[in-house]
Design a protein that fits this description.
- Helix 1 runs antiparallel to helix 3 and helix 5 crosses helix 7.
- This protein has 8 helices and 9 strands.
- The strands form 3 sheets. A 5-stranded mixed sheet has the order 5-6-7-8-9, with helices on one face. Strands 1-2 form a two-stranded antiparallel sheet. Strands 3-4 form a two-stranded antiparallel ribbon.
- Helix content is about 40%, strand content about 15%.
- The protein starts with about 25 loop residues before the first strand and ends with a strand.
- About 10% of the residues have low confidence.
- The protein folds into 2 domains: about 70 residues, no CATH class; about 110 residues, no CATH class.
Length: about 210
């Protein structure tokens, strides 16, 4: 096994943090070059996507790659997102990481299914589609509040307070920490008005780190 070693300064490394990013180098997977910030769930997932690209990995020695991988994986686990490979096996959550906002993809050009794919991942999106519409109830749908139930679980989305509330076990124990959806929330968004769902999901993805999931 390769022993992780902190990266050295690189030719294309930054001299300091990018504008608006943390000033603490320990909040980056590559602290020597101020690269791959992992201070939020969104940035940790983005770091994994970018560092999975071979041209980016090739800039580092194997020991340095191991260091960056370790930092990213620790951040993903902290935020409740499983790492891509654990014990040599691809985890169930790997699809979620890879299903983050596609590189060079305009959020405003993404379809409802693409938007939900970012927040659900492949497996949970399929499960959401498998929930019968008759089990989904939309009790309130205003410009600022959506509320209802999916099966026996409640859903409340307050756009004014930027808050998503839901009470299933998967959401509360796994998904909320990483600001991701469970299958019930996916089914709820498939039930509400299509245009409203797309508009809200685009807003949520652009401002995800400012929303509360609980």
């Amino acid at each position: 096994m390769v022993r992780p070693v902190k990266p050295t300064r690189k030719r294309d490394g930054r001299a300091g943090p990018p504008e608006g990013y943390p000033k603490d180098p320990e909040r980056y997977a590559d602290p020597a070059n101020w690269k791959y910030p992992v201070h939020t769930p969104f940035h940790a997932r983005a770091a994994r996507r970018y560092f999975n690209k071979e041209p980016n990995r090739a800039k580092y020695a194997p020991e340095e790659q191991a260091f960056i991988d370790k930092r990213i994986n620790e951040a993903l686990e902290k935020f409740g997102v499983a790492i891509q490979v654990k014990g040599g096996e691809i985890t169930e959550e790997a699809g979620t990481i890879q299903a983050d906002v596609p590189l060079n993809k305009d959020i405003d050009a993404m379809s409802l299914e693409e938007l939900l794919g970012v927040l659900l991942g492949t497996n949970r999106l399929a499960s959401a589609k498998g929930i019968a519409p008759s089990l989904v109830s939309v009790d309130k749908a205003s410009a600022t509040l959506l509320a209802g139930t999916v099966k026996d679980y409640s859903v409340r989305i307050d756009t004014q307070e930027r808050r998503v509330e839901h009470d299933c076990v998967d959401f509360r124990t796994n998904r909320a920490k990483a600001r991701l959806f469970c299958k019930h929330l996916g089914a709820f968004f498939l039930k509400i008005d299509h245009a409203q769902a797309v508009r809200l999901l685009r807003e949520l993805l652009r401002e995800r780190d400012h929303w509360t999931f609980e």
